[in-house]
């Protein structure tokens, strides 16, 4: 009897390990779409962002301005574009992707359409969820941020930025889509360049904005699935205007 | 010379009158779609809403509750569903439309797809823009509300309600779409029944929500154009889930 009990326990352990293995996989495919599980990272609330540092330094004449739109054929050193960390790194635009992957361990996904699955939505603001998306020969940075723009009322802000210049970004349209409980919310826009600060995009409100109550309606078991698609602007323009 | 000056003045007057005439038209057609110009109406900020009145009275056992979902074959007297006024009217669900048209002068538009053009977006909260939409054999009430959910930070809330029961409303999907400046925002959901309070829909945040900054990005000369489409739920369900 003891033998059978032990066997049963071993089988349960195996099932549990198998479950853990699947849970640990960061990327999996569901219904033909690539799903990327993205864990949250707390923002350094009181640390100055790269933008603020760059802007302050610019005022003192030390560093180039944060908001600049130089063409890629005239490369300059740009500060680290990762919105999470006040990272002292500076480098050419072409090596931003490898810096983000290697130093900040931000995943990069291939595919025309992916699903960004942000976990632990309940965590207090400020919190960020970040992923890179490689598509149409370019890399994009998706940032979902939980932030208290109005004290005591956290909101979710989602935007997509091109790791390139604004001139390059103007050739694309990104779409973020939430779909659950017979509700659907779609946001389409031209991506901003990572040469701009994600902070300014969010403070301008020029992104997908969700109140906590609406985010809860779209969330499943504390996770928010955001469908991402990127197209060239020509496709966007050919679609009907309302 | 004086004659020519007077002639020129008369022509200018005629052009001005013609412009005024077009401006005064409440409904016109643009690009094959029916466009309805909707002027704002200030909410009675400090007056109790019908819902609040009904709920308070219910607690005292005088009136039926505000949130009820009776079938239409069992008609009951319902309070006036116009969210603007604390109107003392009560009547059967079937005569709500005529009451809203005659007493509150809310326009009703026919057509599968219409454009709701809300004027004077800059007016301070609370402000409402309301229209009725007749489609697929039913009447719907579209409410756009500017409200300060967070003190000092007005937001825009848009929702569509069926002038019917929730069982009837479950057969439909409504879509609200904003499209301007290379940005597009779409909200799709099942309409709520007017037997529910619009106040509760807005406080739940279960509607299209726009921050003022985002509303300004979509606004044109102080007006916000919202494309409206209603379909049966079967169409919605057949569309791809993300």
Automatic annotation (TrEMBL), chains A, B:
Q: Which residues form the Seven-in-absentia protein TRAF-like domain?
A: 134-228
- Report what the protein is called: E3 ubiquitin-protein ligase
The record's listing under SUPFAM superfamilies reads: TRAF domain-like
Q: Its pathway? A: Protein modification; protein ubiquitination
By sequence similarity, the record places it as follows: Belongs to the SINA (Seven in absentia) family.
Which reaction does this enzyme catalyse, per its entry?
S-ubiquitinyl-[E2 ubiquitin-conjugating enzyme]-L-cysteine + [acceptor protein]-L-lysine = [E2 ubiquitin-conjugating enzyme]-L-cysteine + N(6)-ubiquitinyl-[acceptor protein]-L-lysine
Q: Which gene encodes it?
A: Siah3
Q: Name one GO biological process term.
A: protein ubiquitination
Q: Which UniProt keywords apply?
A: Metal-binding, Ubl conjugation pathway, Zinc, Zinc-finger
What is the source species? Odontophorus gujanensis
């Amino acid at each position: 009897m003891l033998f059978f009990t032990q066997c049963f326990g071993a089988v349960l352990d195996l099932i549990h390990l198998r479950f853990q293995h699947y849970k640990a996989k960061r990327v999996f495919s569901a219904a033909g779409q690539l799903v990327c599980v993205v864990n949250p990272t707390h923002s350094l609330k009181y640390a100055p962002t790269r933008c603020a540092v760059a802007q302050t330094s610019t005022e003192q004449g030390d560093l180039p301005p944060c908001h600049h739109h130089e063409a890629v054929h005239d490369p300059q050193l740009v500060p680290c574009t990762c919105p999470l960390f006040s990272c002292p790194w500076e480098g050419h635009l072409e090596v931003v992707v490898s810096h983000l992957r290697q130093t900040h361990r931000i995943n990069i996904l291939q595919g025309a359409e992916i699903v960004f699955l942000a976990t632990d939505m309940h965590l207090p603001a400020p919190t960020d969820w970040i992923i890179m998306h490689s598509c149409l020969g370019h890399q994009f940075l998706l940032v979902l941020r939980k932030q208290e723009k109005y004290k005591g009322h956290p909101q979710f802000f989602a935007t997509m930025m091109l790791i390139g210049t604004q001139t390059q970004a103007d050739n694309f349209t990104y779409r973020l889509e939430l779909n659950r409980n017979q509700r659907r919310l779609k946001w389409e826009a031209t991506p901003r360049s990572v040469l701009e600060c994600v902070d300014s995009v969010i403070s301008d409100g020029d992104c997908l904005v969700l109140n906590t109550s609406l985010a809860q309606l779209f969330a499943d078991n504390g996770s928010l699935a955001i469908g991402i698609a990127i197209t060239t602007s020509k496709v966007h323009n050919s679609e009907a205007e309302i």
